[in-house]
Design goal:
Structural class: alpha+beta
Number of helices: 7
Strand content: 25-35%
CATH class of the largest domain: Mainly Beta
Radius of gyration: 22 Å
CATH architecture of the largest domain: Sandwich
Oligomer: single chain
Distance between the termini: 35 Å
Strand order of the largest sheet: 1-5-11-10-6
Shape: globular
Largest sheet: 5 strands, mixed
CATH topology of the largest domain: Substrate Binding Domain Of DNAk, Chain A, domain 1
Number of strands: 12
Helix content: 25-40%
Length: 255
């Protein structure tokens, strides 16, 4: 059985867990490192970090061996991890989703996804997969002429617009009384018109959709992280387990 979950984070840490394995109510902790250590040491969750904000994906293999290609490219292997999955609902999300008070039966990931797997206790092996430039090279080889350049131009222009939103718009509004009203009006009108033009291009452009479909197709076959779940049949009280932390962020922390 294979499950692929994608997640994003703004605090450089991801968590994989069954909400049913957590306490009835989780309250914002003043020391997130203590909370991570507690969760990963008792099988409540697995944490992953690559020292940066952003998004990633996890391919979960339940009672299934990973392909040899994954094994040949693996790095940062951590095995003998205990993960409790009492309800069979597995979630991957950003750690910030756990930094607020919530009831576990009502938990919905805002920064990730959830899937169903057989309930039980699992022995997990987790590792990253180093694909190098292979995914991007495949995208370049398969992209139609002009599609990559179009995606790059639209992406850059949207990035500039977001930066303008963060920096320039508050400045213009905050200093409205000092600016020439006509100039300020032109700036805001240009900004609104820009988004009215760009958003339809992004939403309805065949080139944009084609590139996103191509990227999804390539990256589904090139997962960033693999978690191999093996169902435990013997009592967990009779075994010692490793803490469920993997990724460059935790390797750097230990060093």
């Amino acid at each position: 059985m294979q499950v692929r979950l994608t997640a994003a984070t703004d605090v450089a840490t991801f968590v994989i867990f069954d909400p049913g394995a957590l306490p009835e109510t989780v309250v914002d902790s003043r020391d997130p490192l203590d909370q991570i250590d507690q969760m990963t040491s008792c099988g409540e969750a697995i944490c992953y970090s690559f020292c940066s904000d952003g998004d990633t994906d996890f391919l979960i293999l339940v009672d299934e061996a990973p392909d040899q290609e994954f094994l040949d490219r693996r790095f940062g292997v951590v095995d003998n991890i205990l993960l409790r999955v009492p309800t069979g609902r597995i979630v991957a999300t950003g750690y910030e989703d756990l930094r607020v008070k919530y009831k576990r039966e009502e938990f919905t990931p805002k920064m990730g996804e959830a899937a169903e797997i057989p309930a039980g206790n699992y022995l997990v092996t987790a590792f990253g997969v180093d694909w190098g430039e292979e995914p991007e090279q495949e995208i370049s080889d398969r992209a139609l002429p002009g599609d990559e350049r179009f995606e790059s131009i639209v992406g850059t222009s949207m990035g500039c617009a977001v930066l303008f939103t963060i920096i320039a718009i508050p400045t213009v509004i905050g200093n409205w009384h000092r600016l020439n009203m006509r100039v300020a009006g032109y700036i805001l009108c240009f900004y609104v018109m820009y988004w009215l033009i760009v958003i339809p291009i992004v939403l309805y452009s065949k080139r944009w959709r084609r590139m996103q479909e191509l990227r999804n197709d390539v990256y589904v076959r090139h997962p960033n992280n693999i978690l191999v779940f093996c169902a435990l049949t013997e009592p967990i009280s009779d075994r010692q387990f490793n803490a469920g932390k993997f990724g460059e962020g935790f390797i750097a922390e230990e060093a």
